[in-house]
Amino acid sequence: MLGGYMPVFSQFGNSIYASDIVQNCIDIIATEISKLQPRHIRTDGNGMQTTPRGNLNRLFKFGPNELMTTRDFLEKIIWLLYMNFNVFIYPVYTVQLREDGSEIRSYTALYPLNPYQVDYLQDPTGRLYVKMYFASGDQFTVPYSDLIHIRKRYSVNEIMGGGSNGQPDNEALLKMLRINDTVLQGIEKGIKTSMSIRGVLKIATMMDDESQRKERERFEKLMSSGDSGILPVDLKGEFTPISIDPKMVDKDTLDFLKTGVQEWFGVSLPMLARDYNDEQYQAFYESTLEPILIGLSQAFTKTIFTPRELDMGNEIVFFQRDMMYLSTAAKLNLIKTAGEQGLLSDNQKLALLGYPPLPDGNRITQSLNYVDRSIINIYQLNGANPKSGKAVKDDAEE
Question: Is residue 270 part of a domain?
């Protein structure tokens, strides 16, 4: 295996993933993205969509490789993206040439990679290559155009996401997590202290160490058996209780630290608690999930298809049927209103519900209860009763 390592956990302070809040936030995002349904679709010049038959849709439906289901594949991508701010996916394919010399790619697998080091090389013609080093000691050099590269916080580095060196820039988050860890340790120690020392037993006689130990054990036994709450002490013993009042951090401070981590990842408290409404999920979807969804679609499409196939309208779309933020009633109302006006095709209605298109889904239907404003007078006159002058109601109105 290219991993070549045993799963170990680094101590907190070196990795943000030792924090339960961080792991929960990433898990929420990865779980939602894993609900996506990737599809290869083709859009013609009139905007009509079809689902071509081929190996791509088979891979997306049953599993991109022999180790993962589609859900596992998408979840792995998100975890790698948030851990490294970069994720590389290697598509395996065979090539056949057409009569005109253009190539046809037949894909057999898609693998997310986790190299510990990546070097970029360029040949004399200007073509870019990627040299990847894996923990097993293996090294591979592949053309950059053959890799699906998804980036997060793509800023100062020319090619990689993250900081200037292409690594995750988590220093600001680590500072907050260290404070949070210190606060939690202080709370733990305060609780232990308040429960450990109850008072001081003063023994008014001279005793050796062994005698003192026996006297303490006798006193502790009296304490543990004092059901009535009254503790008998002889003349040689004097018990002085100690009142310990450890100062705990207030709730607002704890909430502030936790909220700072949530804002870093764009995951609100209702999402963490799995107790959200349509509006809260809409905000989470538009601010956190939708940019990832768009990035996945563009990165897969750019790498998988040749320039000729891109010109033919081929693309990879990640349908979000199971993660739409609108309630079913709201989506149906929107489809009813727009559909009656003849604004949506059957495939567009399916897309609104998050379903892939149908082969014959380009039909557009419209309600007969509406008429063009420019001919509304003609429509009414033609439908009027010549004897009474009253409009005749159609079957739908009856």
Answer: no
The answer to whether residues 316 and 332 belong to one domain is no
Question: What is the number of other CB atoms lying within 10 angstroms of the CB of residue 87?
Answer: 24
Q: Within its chain, how far is the Cα of 189 from the centroid? A: 35
289, 304: one domain: yes
pLDDT tens profile 81-130: 998 889 999 999 998 888 887 788 899 999 999 998 888 898 888 899 99
Q: Are residues 213 and 312 in the same domain?
A: no
CA distance 222 to 214: 12
* Residue 380 located in a structural domain: no
Q: What is the pTM of this model?
A: 0.65
Q: Which sign, positive or negative, has the C-alpha torsion 327, 291, 40, 32?
A: negative
Residue 166's identity, in one-letter code, is G
| Same domain, yes or no: 71 and 194 | no
Give the range of the structural domain holding residue 129, as residue numbers without chain letter.
16-169+276-323
Q: Are residues 105 and 182 in the same domain?
A: no
Q: Which two tokens stand for residue 147?
A: 């890799």
Q: Considering only CA atoms, which of 37, 68, 57 is closest in space to residue 322?
A: 37
Q: Tell whether 81 is covered by a domain.
A: yes
- Domain count along the chain: 3
- Cα–Cα distances (Å) from 175 to 39, 152, 165, 181, 184, in that order, read 41, 20, 20, 10, 14
Of 323, 358, 386, the one marking the end of a domain is: 323
Q: Are 257 and 180 in contact (CB under 8 A)?
A: yes
Low-confidence ranges of the chain (pLDDT < 70): 1-19, 168-209, 212, 215-216, 219-220, 222-258, 321-327, 370-373, 376, 379-380, 383-398
Both 158 and 187 in one domain: the answer is no
Same domain for 188 and 293, yes or no, is: no
Q: Please, which residues have CB within 8 angstroms of residue 188's CB and are 6 or more apart in sequence?
A: none
Judge if 162 and 189 occupy the same domain: no
